[in-house]
């Protein structure tokens, strides 16, 4: 079970005992507010009227346990490195965000400043309270912002990239960590593989029938998490079981959690 703790609402200063309640309250505060993005599409702030400006850094701060420490370490000749984070998407309904970790470095005084970037989906497991960080494709983030700059829409687009699903499939699916149960209408005509299957070493599937043909397909599946990090999930009918793909990442933004 998750440890009992309190979360401070960065907008109102109010204390919340549940992660979901915290983000629900933030969602209410952001209602009617317009997000402003900079030249690089990072969210800088929300501007409500007549309340004070809500800076993106306040949202990023909620996910600090999943982020490497920011720093600036340059010598007098400009050699060294720095790490910072920017917000690109935020869905208070799910309590998750899309964040970019950016490292800038210079090896020698006369060298150009080099930059390394990784985008990731970040959030908190519902049962253990442990934070996760899941690297995602930069092109998926950029394309999502171009299609719909709404912060929550960017999160959903990134999730579609992770599980390779359509908007309609994502809306009808059920998630357990990095595994998604997706309702299906076309089922491969392959032999049955029994009624139990272990996915990603920690998601135990039980179903009336399981088939494997590139993807795993299950009839009336239920999934339990053997590490007890996620609540059990289930769907009726045939479903595919999809494990989220992970983008390459620099070591300061590598995947953590499940």
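^ Assign residues to that structure.
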């Amino acid at each position: 079970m998750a440890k009992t703790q309190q979360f401070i609402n960065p907008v109102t200063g109010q204390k919340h005992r549940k992660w979901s309640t915290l983000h629900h309250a933030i969602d209410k505060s952001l209602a009617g507010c317009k997000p402003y993005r900079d030249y690089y599409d990072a969210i800088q702030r929300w501007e409500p009227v007549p309340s004070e400006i809500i800076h993106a850094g306040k949202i990023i701060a909620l996910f600090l346990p999943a982020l490497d420490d920011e720093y600036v370490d340059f010598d007098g000749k400009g050699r060294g490195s720095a790490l910072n984070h920017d917000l690109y998407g935020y869905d208070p309904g799910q309590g998750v965000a899309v964040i970019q970790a950016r490292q800038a470095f210079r090896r020698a005084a006369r060298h150009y400043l080099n930059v390394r970037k990784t985008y990731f989906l970040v959030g908190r497991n519902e049962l253990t309270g442990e934070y996760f960080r899941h690297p995602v494709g930069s092109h998926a983030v950029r394309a999502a912002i171009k299609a719909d700059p709404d912060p929550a829409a960017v999160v959903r687009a990134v999730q579609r990239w992770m599980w390779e699903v359509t908007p309609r499939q994502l809306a009808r699916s059920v998630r357990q960590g990095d595994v998604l149960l997706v309702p299906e209408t076309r089922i491969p005509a392959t032999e049955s593989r029994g009624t139990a299957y272990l996915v990603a070493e920690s998601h135990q599937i039980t179903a009336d029938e399981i088939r494997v043909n590139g993807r795993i397909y299950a009839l009336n599946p239920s999934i339990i998490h053997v590490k007890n990090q996620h609540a059990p999930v289930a769907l009726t009918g045939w479903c595919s079981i999809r494990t989220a793909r992970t983008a390459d990442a620099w070591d300061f933004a590598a995947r953590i959690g499940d």
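The first helix runs from residue 19 to 30.
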